[in-house]
Batch of 4 targets.
Target 1
Amino acid sequence: MVHPGRIHGYVERKFRDRKLGENVTIIIPVILCPIARAVKTQYTKRLLPEFLIPHSVIRLDYLLEAADLPKAERSEAAVCDLIGCLDPRTVRHQMQRLAMAINAVSLDLTGRRAATPELGELPQISPGTPPEERLAILFDSQIRAGQRAGSAPVAPSVRQLLQAAMGTQGTTKPSNRASSHIHPP
């Protein structure tokens, strides 16, 4: 069901500019759904631009650019320069997040295509296919299947799918009871 939404407010969001070497602030809208609020589910959403990663100042477009580098050129220092970070641990963490998101989106697209074999031949992908290439093949197959089905809605881009997958990573909150001290029952 499509719920009506309205602009609830505008919030500041930061992202890392690699040229400036510092964080830049932009304003993004927050929408509110009164129906979701009435049933006590999540009722606000921040509308991030396609180039941002949820819960991170690192830009998704920079990270995808780094992932496209040939393996020989993808050193931690080169990726640090490309995404605008200073610490190699950030590179490892963000590249790991991206790899997990690529795998999650690829698995989802594979499931969608397997569920609708009548919409065209399933793509032939070998086990040795790089994850980024596998994702591109599956996405293209899903778009063509949607066209065959006559789907009218505009399909999300690969970046939007990755952004959504990265937004759900690590969202489980720790227990408020986690402590090194013993608590009574």
Note: The chain is about 45% helix and 15% strand.
Target 2
Amino acid sequence: MAAEAFRMTDGETDRFRGNRIARLIGLLPYLAGCEDAERTSLAHLGTFILANRGAARRAFDHKPSDDSEVLGRLRTISDFKGGDSAILDRGMALLGLCMLSGYRRDADKDRLTEEYNPIVSGAWEPEETDRALRKMPGAKSADALDAILTPGEASVLYWQP
């Protein structure tokens, strides 16, 4: 539905379907048993797509105001109605690991281009941030989340639809 709503090409749709981060974003409300899971899933996937397209990307880029809370930048995809909080916390932490992975990957480029990056600015110490994100609450359906994305895998993936 999200691919259709954003009028993705066949190639974009195939890449989107294969994207494990998008899969986690879309399935998290269902796995946690949230009310209005379909609506939440589509809204969060729409934000994910929008945040990765054209000039709209700038609105979602990390800013110094996002530094104080590790998952602050993800607030637009962290609104859930009900659901198992341990599963939601674990899923968001996995997404945070993916985000941190992108900051690590882009650090040298961001230094050169002077794009804001919390690792380059010194606001975040990458190993400490990684450890904090890995201290995820346990969840009954950790196996379901791990089938989509494990913490180890999340640490090497990055945001890209």
Note: The chain has ten helices and no strands.
Target 3
Amino acid sequence: MSKLSKKDMEELREFTDRGCEYAGTQEIVDDLMNESLREMGVKTICAEDVQLIDWDESSLGTLEDFCNIFWDKAVEKILNVVETQ
């Protein structure tokens, strides 16, 4: 397997960024979230209304927020591995 060029890595980072409109990355993240919820048996999906709360019942954000943060962190870890190979 050959190492990817800097340009290839830049394109991968851009393509997997949730702000990339032409790749539709945010829509892909939303679709993956909804598909995962359906697989778990959730009938009605409105992730922006699902609140994650702390022990003292203060809001930590929405399920949608969590999925976005998780995507960003997972993509970064994966791309770091790809970049070092």
Note: Residues 63-84 form the longest helix (22 residues).
Target 4
Amino acid sequence: MPNAALLLSRLRGEPQHTQELVELVLEDLLERPLAELVDPKLVGDALLSGLRNSLKNPGTKSWINERLQAGIAQLKADQRSLLRRVPRDAVEPVQDLLKRPYSPDPHVLRAMVDHQAMRNLMREVLTHSLTDFASKLKPPTKALGTGRLAQWAGAATVAAKMVGSEVERQLDGRIKSYVDGAISHAIGIAVDNVCDHKNAVEYGNMRADMIDVALAFPVSTWGRELAKLEPTALVDDVHQILSAAASSKELEEELRAMLEGMVEEQGHLSARAFLAGSGLEESWRPPMQTLMLSHTRNVIESQVFADWLHKVCE
């Protein structure tokens, strides 16, 4: 019969045993075929079951809201710029990525931007610009002096004022009619400009510069902007979307089909063979092993583990 006190003493006093146990677990995982590690039905059911149970739990939304509100409060109180919180070495690769020349498909872009909101915006801009331009086209009577020509100009001005309201009304009507017909053309010009490969570098630079602009603002600014999205309502919306998706039979079938396809294609390979050449095992195993070892030792040092071990050995 195993002696619980002796086992506990050995595990706590001789750390190499715990290290060997962690290594055994990792080796076993790496050497097992993927088909054994990933059971499509078991994994799919577990994922969906966990998601459904979390969504049904009334405390989940409250917990998310509390964390979200606390995070926003911290952001709103931080007056530092993002540039002081984000390492420059992490920003530059992002800017390089955004700078890469990219010319979108004009059909796709037009389908996305030719929306009523965009048309309303362009109507407002064009109408204001044309009306402002038309209002400035007035006879320069003051520059004509006091001679007969100035008298004629003055008489013309009086006559113009008599019919001014009617002219302006007709002009406004013509501007609105022209703008309504020009909006599609204006959207087309904008789309062609954005999609023209000759402008790809310029727009790439603009995207990269937007990062610098965003980083220059205080963190509190973005906290206020986030608060404008009404996070509580946003969480409710996301919760509703996830609930509808989780209860969908189609999602269950798609998830299982995806896992089955992966296992069917790669299931005969061990996890180690699957990762071969990627460098992932070499990169991730040492820190993963260290983390697992630390947690395992914490468990072994706990009274809960000691009680469990005594129970097993009885």
Note: The first helix runs from residue 4 to 13.
